[in-house]
Amino acid sequence: MFIRELVPSFVKNSRGERTVQIMLVTYEGRFKVSAPSGKSKGKHEVPSYNSKGIDRSMKLLRVFCRRLENRNFMIRKIDDLKKVVEVVRRFETRYGRFGGNVTYAIESVFLKGAAADNNKEFWEFINDEVNNGKKPKMPMPVGNCIGGGLHSKVIDGKRPDFQEFLLIPKEKTFSRAATVNLRAYEYARKLLKARSRNDEGAWRTNKTNEEVLDVLKTVAKKYKLRIGLDIAASTFYDKGYYNYKNKSLVRDKVDQADYVERLIKKYKIFYVEDGMQEEDFSGYKELLNVVKKGTLIVGDDLTTTNLKLVRRAVNGEAINAMIVKPNQIGSIIEVRDVVNFCKKNKIVMIFSHRSGETMDDTLADYCVGFGGQFLKTGIFGRERLIKLRRVMMIEKSLR
Ligand code: PEP
Ligand code: MG
Question: Is residue 131 over pLDDT 80?
Answer without folding.
Answer: no
